[in-house]
Amino acid sequence: MERLLLALVLGLVAVGFALWMQRRSIPTATESVGEFKAPEHLYREDFDGPESPWLVAVFTSATCSTCADVWVKAKALRSPQVAVQEIEETTDAELHRRYDVRAVPIVAIADTDGVVRASFMGPVSATHLWAGLAELRDPGSGPSGCAESAAGPNLSDYECSGGGHVQPTDASGN
Description:
Elements: H1 2-25, E1 54-60, H2 65-75, E2 82-88, H3 93-98, E3 106-110, E4 116-121, H4 126-137, E5 146-148, E6 158-160, E7 167-168
Parallel strand pairs: 1-2
Antiparallel strand pairs: 1-3, 3-4, 4-7, 5-6
C-alpha cells in the first residue's frame, strides 16, 4: 500500500512538473513574443524642421488603417515650435531600418537634441498626443487625469486616464 501511495505521489509530481515546464515554454496570448520599441534617439538632421525645439515623428505604413488615423491626429500638433513628420515604411524605408522600427504606428516625441522624451505605440487619441506634448513642453500643463509619476524624474513618466499610454524613456533606455 505504501508503494502505491509513493508511486501516486511521484506520478502527480512528475505530471505537475511537466505541465509547469510546458506553460513556461509557450507564450500565452498576452505575452509578447517579440519586443517592439520606439526609438530612443532621433538624429534631428534626418527629419524635417531640425531647428524646431520639438519633433513629433510618426512611423507608419501605407497598408495600416490605424496608422492613417494616428497621422491625422499627429498633424494637428504642428506649430512653429513643433515639427511633425510622417515616416512611411515604403517611402522612408531607410529611416525605418536605421531606427529599427518593426511595428507601426509609433509616435516618437523628441527634444532639440533628438532624445525621445515620450512615445506612443499603436492607436492613440488626439487628447493623449496633445497631453503628452503639452506635458513635455510645459510640465504640469497636461489636462486633469494626467499625473506625473514618482517612477522617475523624466517628464514623460505619466499616464492619462481614458486610454492611451505614454511610453516613458529614461536615461538608461528603459
